[in-house]
């Protein structure tokens, strides 16, 4: 097995596993953190200000996690396309 086969492209090898399995799982977790914060902030703990602040923190960290993941995923895919590992979209 060559290094190029081991690393793979957008759908095979290590890069394929990251693109197809790992990144969507992490994105789902970040989205669920965001949704949990929204539910806590608006529905479950509407009267308790400390619980609303906790919900606000979940919303903030969920948004930051999704933004960071999207940006890193984009930069990695741009680098892979530039290096010729991934075919251009």
UniProtKB/TrEMBL annotation:
Pfam families on file: T4SS_pilin
InterPro entries tied to this protein: T4SS_pilin (IPR043993)
Keywords: Membrane, Transmembrane, Transmembrane helix
Regions that span the bilayer: 12-38, 58-80
UniProt protein name: Uncharacterized protein
Species, as recorded: Candidatus Kaiserbacteria bacterium RIFCSPHIGHO2_01_FULL_53_31
Upper taxonomic lineage: Bacteria, Candidatus Kaiseribacteriota
């Amino acid at each position: 097995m060559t290094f190029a086969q081991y690393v793979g492209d957008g759908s095979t090898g290590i890069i394929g596993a990251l693109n197809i399995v790992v990144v969507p799982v992490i994105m789902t977790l970040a989205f669920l953190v965001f949704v949990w914060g929204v539910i806590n902030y608006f529905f479950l703990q509407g009267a308790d200000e400390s619980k609303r602040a906790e919900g606000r923190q979940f919303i903030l960290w969920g948004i930051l996690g999704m933004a960071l993941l999207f940006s890193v995923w984009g930069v990695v895919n741009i680098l892979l396309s530039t290096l010729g590992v991934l075919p251009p979209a």
